[in-house]
């Protein structure tokens, strides 16, 4: 079995497949890289809920529930810590419009049976004293945690190596198809990797692999996100942290988040830009992030700015991933995770290993079959959106 793409989705697929006894290889010039090197690592099933995405919510919650056990298994397999932190999230409003938006989100969360508590501005500041005095209210979501995606990627790479996954450190240039079946890949360095099954997990590039028949090429596009990394001040033991949990807001229509890590890193993100494969960090992007974050937490301007970067979210037409077998025998997809790649890593590894070992997707992943984007497949895969979760 060959996985094309060694980001966290490709790696978790390879690791879980190898654990099930499949002979597994990964093709990627720099495995462990990709969007996870930029991502903040919020496990935000509840605070990133959107209208019309209740089906995706079910998968997001299923993956969030798997995180504690997944973390324990991966840390055991790799000997590395992945920074899973059960810190919860506070989503706040800075003005009347934001507050109305948060009230709507809260109503949707409650209708969906989720755990979310409305707080006044004063209650928000009691939880997080660094918040601006103007905060008008917020949602306390104690179940939305975080993980460190860079550590996650490193641990998955080690776990794969220890499980016997073979790495081809070259880009897959073309899928090979023989007798109407995917049969491996030709690499950019000229090498050929034959495989009985191929998983396309190429993130934003998944829709561009040569040799994939048009009808099964995944409809994935990149959405750029710029992210900053700051350094938190050291606080003496027993003193309150600068921020104790993830803080989010929508400022002038732009979603913003600050994710404080135990390591002392504060991740501040993110822009959302439809600019193709451009990953330039722009003065405007950095300015807007800092301007909005300063409105939310004025003290951030005192912190050292240690890194700026930009990544690409692999995005499908319905913002949900494409998982499992395609109409081309031997070719499966694991791509299109958009804003939820880190959150969906545990469940993706599990369902892809099952699909590779048995040929069919587990029930919870069926709505995410690539067939939903083909005319006949869409009929079969349709799921009512407002189903209870
Ligand atoms: N999930 C956070 C982001 O995509 O920016």
Topology readout:
Elements: E1 2-4, H1 8-19, E2 25-27, E3 42-43, H2 54-78, E4 89-93, H3 96-111, E5 117-120, H4 121-127, E6 137-141, E7 145-146, H5 149-162, E8 166-168, E9 172-178, E10 181-187, E11 192-194, E12 198-200, E13 221-231, E14 246-251, E15 254-260, E16 265-269, H6 283-296, E17 305-315, E18 322-325, E19 331-335, H7 345-358, H8 375-381
Parallel strand pairs: 1-2, 1-12, 2-8, 4-14, 12-19
Antiparallel strand pairs: 3-7, 4-6, 5-6, 9-10, 10-11, 13-16, 13-17, 14-15, 15-16, 18-19
The structure holds glycine.
The unique ligands bound to this protein are: glycine
At the fold tier of CATH, the topology name of the largest domain is FAD/NAD(P)-binding domain
Named at the architecture level, the CATH assignment of the largest domain is 3-Layer(bba) Sandwich
Q: Name the average pLDDT.
A: 94
Shape: globular
Q: Spell out the helices and strands N to C.
A: EHEEHEHEHEEHEEEEEEEEEHEEEHH
Number of strand elements: 19
Catalytic activity: glycine + O2 + H2O = glyoxylate + H2O2 + NH4(+)
Protein name: glycine oxidase
EC number: 1.4.3.19
Pfam families: DAO
């Amino acid at each position: 079995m060959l996985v094309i793409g060694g980001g966290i989705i490709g790696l978790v697929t390879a690791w879980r497949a190898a654990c099930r006894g499949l002979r597994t290889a990964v093709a990627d010039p720099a495995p462990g890289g990709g969007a996870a090197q930029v991502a903040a690592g919020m496990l935000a099933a509840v605070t990133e809920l959107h209208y019309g995405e209740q089906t995706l919510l079910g998968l997001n919650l299923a993956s969030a529930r798997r995180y504690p056990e997944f973390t324990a298994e991966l840390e055991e397999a790799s000997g590395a810590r992945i920074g899973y932190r059960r810190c919860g999230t506070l989503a706040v409003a800075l003005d009347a419009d934001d507050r109305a938006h948060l009230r709507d989100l809260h109503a949707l969360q409650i209708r969906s049976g989720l755990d979310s508590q409305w707080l006044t501005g004063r209650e928000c500041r009691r939880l997080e004293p660094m918040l601006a005095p103007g905060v008008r209210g917020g949602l306390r979501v104690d179940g939305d945690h975080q993980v460190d995606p860079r550590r996650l990627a490193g641990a998955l790479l080690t776990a794969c190596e220890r499980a016997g996954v073979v790495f081809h450190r070259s880009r897959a240039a073309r899928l090979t198809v023989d007798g109407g079946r995917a049969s491996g890949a030709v690499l950019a360095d000229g090498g050929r990797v034959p495989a009985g099954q191929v998983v396309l997990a190429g993130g934003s590039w998944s829709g561009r692999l040569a040799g994939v028949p048009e009808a099964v090429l995944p409809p994935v596009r990149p959405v750029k996100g710029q992210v900053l990394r700051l350094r938190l001040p050291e606080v003496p033991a027993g003193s309150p942290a600068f921020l104790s949990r993830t803080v989010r807001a929508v400022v002038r229509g732009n979603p913003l988040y600050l994710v404080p890590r135990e390591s002392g890193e504060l991740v501040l993100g993110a822009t959302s830009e439809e600019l193709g494969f451009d990953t330039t960090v722009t003065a405007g992007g950095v300015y807007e992030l800092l301007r909005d974050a300063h409105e939310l937490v004025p003290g951030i301007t005192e912190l050292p700015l240690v890194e700026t970067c930009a990544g690409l979210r692999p995005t499908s037409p319905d913002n949900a991933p494409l998982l499992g077998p395609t109409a081309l025998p031997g070719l499966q997809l694991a791509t299109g995770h958009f804003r939820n790649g880190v959150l969906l890593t545990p469940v993706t590894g599990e369902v892809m290993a099952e699909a590779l070992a048995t040929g069919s997707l587990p029930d919870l992943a069926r709505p995410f079959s690539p067939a939903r984007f083909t005319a006949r497949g869409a009929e079969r895969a349709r799921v009512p959106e407002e189903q209870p979760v």
